[in-house]
Amino acid sequence: MSQLVVGISDMKVSRTPGDVLVTYALGSCIAVILWDPVLRAGGMIHYMLPLSKTSPEKAELTPAMFADTGVPMLFRMMYAMGCKKEDLVVKVAGGGQLYDDSGAFQIGHRNYVVLRKIFWKNDILITAEDVGGPVSRTVRLSVDTGEVVIRSKGEEVTL
Amino acid sequence: MIRQETLLREVRALPTLSPSVARLQQVLRDPRSDARAVEAALRLDPAMTGNVLRLANSAAVGLRRKVGDVREAATLLGTKAVFELATQASFAGVIPDVLPGYQIDARAYWLHCAGVAVISEELARVVRPAPAYLHTASLLHDVGKLVASLHLADRDVEIRRALADRTLAEAEVELLGMDHAELGAAVAAHWQLPDEIAAAIRWHHAPDRASEAAQRLTDLVHLADGLAHSLGMGADVGELQRTIQSSAVQRLGIDVRHLELVAAASLGRVMELQDTFTPAGGRR
Questions:
Q1: pTM for this predicted structure
Q2: pLDDT band for position B279 (50/70/90)?
Q3: A54 and B264: CB-CB below 8 Å?
């Protein structure tokens, strides 16, 4: 039983009772949180950017940096633990945005759009999400219960 | 409201960067300076020498072999790089364990400073050339928070209320009469840093107001600061409540794809630079 920290451009899975997956300070980055209520297994990715074509070399080394390489890999890691696609509960958090009229800082929005596209293509539904806004989020997943708690603006909410 | 004189007095009470950083700056201004001059500037400061060697041999620098003395480090890395390492070591030494008010600790604050330093350099690779003092101005851009945080401690309710409909900088003006950028410029002046660095610190949230001489430097620090916050490097109480000035984006001619490229190129180096930080237990 331990706390597993998911860094920026990182992903982790666990089916150890009592484990908590946590990622800190999601700004424009996005966390996808998966939970299997049958096996009581969980997984989390904290990806930074939408598309691996930005840097194929980095994607090779660190697939979790990008939505298009990292998210499919997270699902495969869950399947490798024995999870079935139809059992997975999918939650999404992050994709925040600075106050920016120039459009140059739309990374959060692009991260979200690409994720929706990946999910749409693969027929995956989002159960709950907390995205956008000038907000930084810290996310915790309890592997036992599947409870997802988001902390931002000094308050905690259950997703 | 706190009197401005009180804040400015505390600026003068802040521990200064090591005198060897100022000596190195002098050395750097002389185009004829070499590795021997760098060694001479650090000779009287064994603690700084040790820190510079530790950093020079860290993963963040990525030398193929270990260096044993400052002259060797300066020969291999260049005098500018050794100056940057000395600035990092010296600055890390004045960061307190926590910055109350901003609700961050020394590690998160350092992560943000390191993030802006690496990102601004990567940005300057996209929109060449890099202006002088880019590393130092980026690393020190939030130095005003070291002073401001003392007066924001135990005022969480007020801060949250001020942040309800304001940016972080506006909330600071509301609560302190000035923001961390203005305080930071006062620190830069007190530390006798070059005018361009003080200007970039002063206007890093309002780059349109920077002088022509400091414009490019300030624009780069402004956008690197925005990107570091966007990527969650050192999130503080202000979260993403910070404004990007479109004019800075236009002056540098960048778009979202450039920023994504810079983010991908920067992350590894930021993490390595973060790992070089050893909490100094500065003061307080």
A1: 0.92
A2: low
A3: yes
Element (H, E) at B223: helix B215-230
Residue B48 pLDDT greater than 90, yes or no = no
For residue B160, the chain A residues in CB contact (below 8 A) are 153-154
What's the CA gap between B101 and B148, in Å, rounded? 8
Chain A: give the shortest CA distance to residue B132, in Å: 25
Q: Is the predicted pLDDT of residue B281 greater than 60, yes or no? A: no
* Crossing angle between the packed helical segments B70-77 and B46-56, to the nearest 10 degrees: 40
Residue B164, token pair as written in the block: 């309800």
- B166 CB neighbours in chain A (<8 A) are none
Contacts of A95 (CB under 8 A, 6+ apart): A28, A29, A30, A108, A109, A111, A112, A131, A132
The confidence band for B277, taking pLDDT boundaries of 50, 70 and 90, is: confident
End-to-end CA distance of chain A: 22
- State the Cα–Cα distance between residues B152 and B172, nearest whole angstrom: 9
Sign of the C-alpha dihedral, residues B120, B121, B122, B128? positive
**Selection from A127, A156, A114 nearest residue A139 by Cα:** A156
- Please judge whether B243 and A99 are an interchain contact, meaning their C-beta atoms are less than 8 angstroms apart: yes
ipTM tops 0.90? yes
- CA B168 – CA B234 distance, rounded (Å): 14
Question: Rounded to an integer, what distance in angstroms lies between the CA atom of residue B111 and that of residue B221?
Answer: 15
Residue B137's identity, in one-letter code, is A
Interface test with B, best of A60, A102, A151 (most B CBs within 10 A): A102
Q: Which fold has domain A3-158?
A: 60s Ribosomal Protein L30; Chain: A; (3.30.1330)
